[in-house]
Amino acid sequence: MTQQVPPLLAVRGVTKSFPGVRALHNMHLELRRGEVLALVGENGAGKSTLMKLLSGLYVPDHGSFDLDGKPFVSNGPKHAQELGISIIHQEFNLMPDLTVAQNIFIGREPRRFGLLSEHALNRKAQDLFDRMRLQLNPRESVGRLTVAKQQMVEIAKALSHDSKVIIMDEPTAALNDAEVATLHDLIRGFISLETGVIYISHRMDELKLISQRITVIRDGEYVDTVGTAETSMKEVISLMVGREVSGEQRPTAATAGARTDVVLSVEGLATKALLRDVGFDLHRGEILGFAGLMGAGRTEVARALVGADRATFGNLRVRGADVDIPNPAVAAKLGIGYLSEDRKHLGLMLERDVKENIMLSSLTENSAGGFIKEGALRRTAEEFSKKLRIKTPSVHQLARNLSGGNQQKIVIAKWLVKDCDILIFDEPTRGIDVGAKEEIYKLLDELAAGGKAIIMISSELPEVLRMSHRIAVMSEGRITGFLNNAEATQENIMELATRRISAIPGAVTA
Question: For residue 452, which of 314, 339, 299, 321 has the smallest C-alpha distance?
C-alpha cells in the first residue's frame, strides 16, 4: 500500500480571537507540493490574520501547523524564514533610507576581511535581478521608488531566501499587466516538488492564470477549496461574499450621455523629471480614465495637477479661470481632491481615529473662534461612515485597525466632506476585495451622476474599461491617444501604451 505524501503546509483547526473580535475560527488550509494555492476572501475575512499566525507575529488560541508533515510553531518572521516560510505582506517592510540591495540582503551582506563589501552586495543584487528579469537599480534609495517598484523589491527579497513556501499577499496590487506576467513567470520558475506558493489576490482574472486550487474563507471561517480549472470566477465570488455579485453584467457608467461642461482644462503640462506637453479636458459628470504601463507618467500627472510635484510648464484652467496650484492645499481650496495610490502614507493618519481622518480636510469649516466643533465633526463623520458603509465599531476606532477597503473609504469620505467637485482617484481599488470594489464602483458612478468630475488612474485594464467614459493612454510621460467607449479595448489601450513617442513632436489632445 502506497504511503500518502503529506501536504507541504497544513493548517488544522486554527482559531484566533482578539478583544471583542473573533478573527479566525476552526480554519483549515492545505498547500500541496508544487502547487500555487489561491487564498481568497473579502477584506476582514481573516487572510491577514492567518498570515501573521504563520509568520509568528500572532500565537493561535487553538489549532496546529504542519510543514513537510511535521508540526511547527513559528516564533517570529526570522524563525519562519529559517523554517522555509517567506511572507510578502501587502504592507511593505522596507527601509526607505537604504538602497535596494541593502534592503534585500540586510543581515546577510557579503563581507571581505570582516568589512561589508558594497561592490559585492550590489553585484549579488544585480545577479538576482538578472535572473528575475527585473528592471531595478541596486544602488537606488528605496524611498525614491514608486509603489510598484517597491513591491518588486519585496518580491526580490522573498525570493532571495531559500524558501519552501512563499506566501504572497496581494503581490500584484500595484503592477500592470506586463509586470503581472513577469511575476507569474517568476512564480512558475520557483515551483518544484519541494516548494509551493500561497497566492492572495483580489484580482479574479489572475487566479485562472496562476493557481491550481482556490481556498475560500468568509468571516474568519473556512468555506471550501475548489479546483481552479473546474470552477468559474463567478462561483468563487459567490463563495467569498455569500451572495451573487453583478460584476461585468452591471451596466457600465460609460453608457451615459456626452458631457460638454469643461471643469478642468490642462495644456502643455510638463515636469522636470518626466511629463512633456500633457493636455486634456475634464468634463462635469465624466470619469476620465488614465491607462499606461508603469513609469508612463499617470501618477505624475495627478501629482502635478494638485501641486505635489511642481510643474515646469503648463496652463491650468478650473471652471474657466486660469489658476496656479503650488501645493495640495491650494488644490483643495479650488475643489480638487487627490486620493493617492499610497493611502497608508499619503492619505491617512493611521494612529488617529476614523472621525479625525474623515474630517481632516474640513477642520476650518468646522471651527469657530479657534475652537473645533467636536459635536459637528462627530455627526458628519458618522453620516459619511454610514453613507459609505465603512465597517467600524464606531468613528472613534483607530484607522490602522480597519481593513484596506474600509481605509480607502475613509480617504474617499474625507474629500466628499470637503465637497470637492474634481476628484482624482489613483488606484482606487488597490488591495480591495471584490465586494468592496463593487461598492467603490457604485460610488464612483453616483458621484459622476451627481456632477462630480473624476480622473481615475488604474493599472487594471478591465477596471479602466468598465468605469471610464473616455480613456487617456500615456507612454513615456506623454498622452499617446484618447479612446472613447466604442473604441476602447485592451488591445487598443496596449497599442497606445507601448507606442514609442520620442519622435512625436507634440502631445495628443482632446
Answer: 339
Cβ contact 146:173 at 8 Å: no
First vs last Cα of the chain: how many Å apart? Answer: 72
The residue count for the chain = 510
Residue with grid cell 477549496, as numbered in its chain: 225
d(CA 407, CA 390): 8
Q: For residue range 150-159, what is the model confidence (pLDDT) as tens digits?
A: 878 888 888 8
CB-CB contact of 166 with 186 (8 Å): no
Nearest by Cα to 455 from 248, 263, 277, 261:
263
Question: CA 507 to CA 510: how far, in whole Å?
Answer: 10
Reduce the DSSP state of residue 145 to 3 states and report it: coil
pTM of the predicted protein model: 0.59
Write out pLDDT tens, residues 399-441: 778 777 777 788 888 877 777 889 999 988 876 777 778 878 8
Residue 408 · residue 343 · CB < 8 Å:
yes
Distance, CA of 212 to CA of 197 (rounded, Å):
10
The H or E element spanning position 189 is helix 177-190
